[in-house]
Amino acid sequence: MTFTFRPLDPLNDAELLHAWVTHPKAAFWMMQDASLVDVERAYMEIAADEHHHALLGLRDDEPAFLMEYYDPAHRELVGLYEPQPGDIGMHFLTPATDTPVHGFTRSVITAVMARLFEDPAVERVVVEPDVSNKAVHALNEAVGFVPEREIQKPEKKALLSFCTREHFFEIQHSLAATGVPA
Fold first, then answer.
1. Best CA proximity match to 32, nearest among 16, 20, 40, 14
2. Cα–Cα distance for residue pair 58/65, rounded to 1 Å
3. Burial (0-12, 13-18, 19+ Cβ within 10 Å), 58
4. Which candidate in 5, 31, 57, 99 could, as Cys together with 21 as Cys, close a disulfide (CB 3.0–4.6 Å)?
5. Pairwise CA distance, residues 5 & 57, whole Å
6. Pairwise CA distance, residues 53 & 67, whole Å
7. How many other C-beta atoms lie within 10 A of the C-beta of residue 107?
8. Per DSSP, what are the bridge partners of residue 163?
9. Is 179 helix (H, G, I), strand (E, B) or coil?
10. Which residues have CB under 8 Å from 114's CB, separation 6+?
11. Does the pLDDT at position 171 exceed 80?
12. Residue 141 to residues 119, 136, 148: CA-CA distances in angstroms?
């Protein structure tokens, strides 16, 4: 699967995002009760934040998933771990669908990681999913994340995990060598 990315437009994309983030499948996004205005406001804040960014992932020029990335020295993880130069934090959301495509979410996280590592300054991706989100833990492991420890964030107990550039590309190379799609 091939994906492209474009900056999220908080106003024009708000209805789409609202449907995605308030769906029961997106419970770990923690916006279940958000109004359309709440979603617009949240993504306008991200758009104005120099340390947090949101992109829409497109498949065949149609919005297919949401990707956020942030500087963990300034957002999300401040005081919860010691950031290293080259660290970047990441979130992604694939929307609920009535017609699931086998391997779609794994293809999405692989594309998100590849997009982050396009920046030569990025050496390590940091994630902090809810400890009970077993599905995302498996996806994270599949692309090279290694759990470090549980941390307590204000809104959740999270599993702090890291994936280095080297480990991600080793896994992609191994998969390619065996003919397994990434």
1. 20
2. 7
3. middle
4. 31
5. 5
6. 8
7. 21
8. 125
9. coil
10. 172
11. yes
12. 22, 8, 12
Structure confidence by residue, pLDDT tens digits, 51-88? 999 999 999 999 999 999 999 999 989 999 999 999 99
**Coil vs helix vs strand at 171:** helix
Give CA–CA dist 124/168, Å, rounded: 9
Sheet bearing 157-164, strands edge to edge = 4-7, 52-59, 62-70, 87-93, 124-127, 157-164, 146-152
How far is it, in rounded angstroms, from Cα 122 to Cα 3? 20
Which whole-number Å values give the CA distances from 82 to 72, 150, 153, in the listed order?
9, 14, 15
CA distance 21 to 28: 9
b/e sequence 21-31, b meaning 16+ C-beta within 10 Å: bbbeebebbeb
Q: Where are the extended beta strands (E) located within the chain?
A: 4-7, 52-59, 62-70, 87-93, 124-127, 146-152, 157-164
- Contact between 32 and 22 (Cβ < 8 Å): yes
Q: Do 110 and 172 form a contact (C-beta atoms < 8 A)?
A: yes
Report the helix count and the strand count for the chain, using DSSP H and E. Answer: 5, 7
**What token pair was written down for 104?**
């779609």
Q: Which residue has the tokens 């109004």?
A: 35
Q: Say how many residues make up the chain.
A: 182
Q: Considering the entire predicted model, what is its pTM?
A: 0.91
